[in-house]
Amino acid sequence: MVAEIISGKEIAESIRAELKDEIAKLKAEKNLTPGLGVILVGEDPASQVYVGQKSKGCEEVGIFEETIRMPEDTSEQTLLDKINELNNDPKFHGILVQLPLPKHIDEKKVINTISPEKDVDGFHPVNVGKLMIGEKAFLPCTPHGVQQMLIRSGNDPAGKHVVVVGRSNIVGKPMTNILLQKKDGANATVTICHTGTPDISKFTKEADIVIAAAGRPNTITADMVKDGVVVIDVGVNRVDAPETKRGFRLVGDVDFEAVKEKAKAISPVPGGVGPMTVTMLLVNTTESAKRTLG
Q1: pLDDT of residue 244
Q2: Catalytic pick from 82, 98, 118, 147?
Q3: Residue 98 known to be catalytic
Q4: Helix axes 274-291, 141-152, angle to 10 degrees
Q5: Which of these, 279, 265, 294, 284, lies nearest to 7 by C-alpha position?
Q6: Strand, coil or helix: what is 37?
Q7: Left if phi > 0, otherwise alpha if psi is -120 to 50, otherwise beta: which for 187?
Q8: Report field, pTM of the whole predicted structure over 0.70
């Protein structure tokens, strides 16, 4: 068996094309341009790359985007004041503060200050709670992207046993909550495994779908999955590769080469979940703008 490759890059391109058309109609028919405010504190190289990707994505689909760059030594109160300024500015329908933040700033306080109505990352406790009980909420971008990858690749999770490996607030926990809802594209039986699980393979061997979000290379190996499994690899890890120009390469949490021989379908790293995360941020920002129409 040679696995079908679930290309997040191709699915993201398809969603962005749909979004571009939708935004063009909003501008023409409703005089509404979705707006995203991005705050970047400090000079973290990875954060600058991520912010650049978000800015490029907004430009591609027609979202107004403004990146506010603040120095590393910005006080917590100055940052909170800037967030409140954006909360009250109607041209911004979404607000994103790029994480991680400098150590002197309380990340939780920052997340809680963003208006739930503009929390397009889906991290505010109000949106987390709404997701938990099945109310309409902004879904966190990475797990929402995983759900779309499953649906659009013909691997609807409904009725399937999904095993999520990893329990982070960004991926593992919301992924579990998204897929267990009694809704289209969900309605799965979900098991969540983590570092406290004595034998992860006991569960992954029974899974129809495995979603790996552990943050460690080779967490999922071929002997841990059954034939015909669908695997979504959320991990992005740097491993040494002296033979390459950069000296490293990116791998996921799954032993891709071995697992693809048993899987029905599998997502690669890179080119899998990564492109979906920014795309779902664009979807959430557009949705936020539409909600202002009543």
Answers
A1: 82
A2: 98
A3: yes
A4: 100
A5: 265
A6: strand
A7: left
A8: yes
Q: Is 20 a catalytic residue?
A: no
In the chain, where the domains are located: 31-115, 141-273
Please indicate whether the domains covering 31-115 and 141-273 agree at the CATH topology level: yes
Q: Which two tokens stand for residue 17?
A: 């094309």
Q: Is the pLDDT of residue 1 over 80?
A: no
Length of the chain: 294
What gap in Å lies between CA 239 and CA 41, rounded to an integer? 28
CATH architecture of the domain 31-115 equals 3-Layer(aba) Sandwich (3.40)
What class does CATH assign to 141-273? alpha beta
Q: Mind listing the pLDDT tens digit for each residue in 161-206? A: 999 999 999 999 999 999 999 999 999 999 999 999 999 999 999 9
* Packing angle, helices 141-152 and 172-180, rounded to 10: 50
The sheet with strand 35-41 has its strands ordered as 64-70, 35-41, 94-97
Question: Is 54 known to be catalytic?
Answer: yes
Phi, psi (rounded to 5 degrees) for 60: -65, -40
Residue 238 has pLDDT above 90, yes or no: no
Nearest CA to 159 among 119, 141, 186, 120?
A: 186
What is the structure's pLDDT at 46? 87
**Mean residue pLDDT across the chain:** 96
What pLDDT, on the 0 to 100 scale, is given for residue 65? 98
User: Taking the chain, what is the end-to-end CA distance rounded to the nearest angstrom?
Assistant: 50
From 82, 118, 121, 255, the catalytic residue? 121
